[in-house]
């Protein structure tokens, strides 16, 4: 069902955990659908210097969380906001159609974490 890249990202995920005193945190999903994803960011001078995730879900949810956090480290906030679920899926070499929603969660969690950061910055 999953290709080699997805299985590798699932079995050896990068950036697992939570950033203490994170600049921004985004949590998406719900228990009824079974996938919950939280991404926390450390941002310095509008550049993402670290990203971690905690995900409760299937192999695709974990693989997309790992890949998405890996993709955005080193990006500016503007660049990270342009990361789409399609880019995450491409990076993984594809996902089964019934698992595409996992990549959407990754995109949404990044955006929520950045929104959280920007709201704290303005406060």
Describe this structure in words.
The chain is of the alpha+beta class and 123 residues long. It is built from five helices and three strands, in the order αβββαααα. A three-stranded antiparallel beta sheet has the order 1-2-3. A hairpin with a 4-residue loop joins strand 1 and strand 2. Helix 2 crosses helix 5 and helix 4 packs across helix 5. The model has no long low-confidence stretch (mean pLDDT 95).
Poorly predicted runs: none
Q: Strand percentage, roughly?
A: 15-25%
Placed side by side, the strands forming the largest sheet appear as 1-2-3
- Cα(first) to Cα(last) distance is 46 Å
Oligomer: single chain
Shape: globular
> How many beta strands in the DSSP annotation?
3
- The secondary structure category is alpha+beta
What is the makeup of the main sheet?
A: 3 strands, antiparallel
State the helicity in percent bands: 40-55%
Count every helix, treating DSSP H or I runs of 4 or more residues as helices: 5
**Strand/helix succession:** HEEEHHHH
- Arithmetic mean of pLDDT: 95
Spatial extent as radius of gyration: 13 Å
Give the helices and strands, then pairings:
Blueprint: H1 4-11, E1 24-30, E2 35-44, E3 47-56, H2 59-72, H3 77-81, H4 85-91, H5 100-122
Antiparallel strand pairs: 1-2, 2-3
Helix pairs in contact: 1-2, 2-5, 4-5
Question: What are the key terms here?
Answer:
123 residues; alpha+beta; 3 strands
Give a short summary of the structure:
Helix content is 46%, strand content 22%. It has five helices and three strands, in the order αβββαααα. A hairpin with a 2-residue loop joins strand 2 and strand 3 (47-56).
